[in-house]
Amino acid sequence: MEQGRAHEQARPPYASVASATTPASVRVPAQARGEQVRGEHIHSEPPVPRPAVQRHSVRGQILDALRAALVDGQLVPGQVYSAPALGARFGVSATPVREAMQQLAIEGAVEVVPNRGFRVSRRGPRELAELAEVRALIEVPVMLRLARTVPPARWCALRPLAEATVAAAAVGDRASYAETDRAFHGAVLALCGNEQLVMVADDLHRRSQWPLGNTPATRRADLLADAAEHTALLDALIAQDLTVVQSLVREHFTGAET
């Protein structure tokens, strides 16, 4: 996988590129900012509670942006970030940022620093290798079983997902590649019909995509090599060449441990 191969120089710290990661689409409704909306009655009737979906939507967008920043190295391992400062970058209040960071803390991506904010976790090669080993234990047997039971037409339907990983790799977009990579693996595993397995595998996959501390970012050439394994695997599955499938699947995960 992409995290085990050679690396190139990381991008500048998050503070210098945060606005590029979080476009103007990440906005809080005027009501959420406490501003009066035109035509809004504020004296003669009690305020209408804001639908919960709005808050969750903003929090979800912030969470996605923070995850992308983690993968892309814009949130630097070991650095502490405060919710108000990040909220200012995103143009939202500190609350949805804090909620998103709490979720990342549950996932192990950051640590809570009392009265300061959140520190991006430092990880070492051993943790990455352990994640790769656990993923292999889960995914390899499932993929090999599916290779024997799923008809070629079902595999053909996954072609756009494999091609999406190639497109993201071609432009060196590590955040987009992380998402398309997980989408492809998730779609493959979903064919087994075990939703719990898919959720566990996705969590492990996401954790394995966070960069190691003090290391260069993944090179575009390595992303392309990883994406090429997806298309080669699909070709073998469609051709029902089980020997090639087994070789590619094991190589895909062995590469993640090197």
Order of helices and strands: EHHEHHEEHHHHHEHH
Mean pLDDT score, rounded? 79
- Give the number of DSSP strands: 5
Percent of residues in β-strands: 5-15%
Poorly predicted runs are 1-54
Provide the spatial order of strands within the biggest beta sheet: 2-4-3
Largest sheet: 3 strands, antiparallel
Q: Cα distance, first to last residue? A: 9 Å
Question: Approximately how much helix is present in the residues?
Answer: 55-70%
Using only C-alpha atoms, the radius of gyration works out to 21 Å
Identify the overall geometry. Answer: elongated
Question: Which structural class matches the secondary elements?
Answer: mainly alpha
Instruction: Give the helix tally.
Output: 11
Q: Describe it for me?
A:
The protein is elongated. The strands form two sheets. The chain has a three-stranded antiparallel beta sheet with strand order 2-4-3. Strands 1-5 form a two-stranded antiparallel sheet. The N terminus is likely disordered. The chain is mainly alpha-helical. Helix 8 runs parallel beside helix 10 and helix 10 packs antiparallel against helix 11. The longest helix is centred in the middle third of the chain and has 25 residues. The chain is 62% helix and 5% strand. The protein is built from eleven helices and five strands, in the order βααβααββαααααβαα.
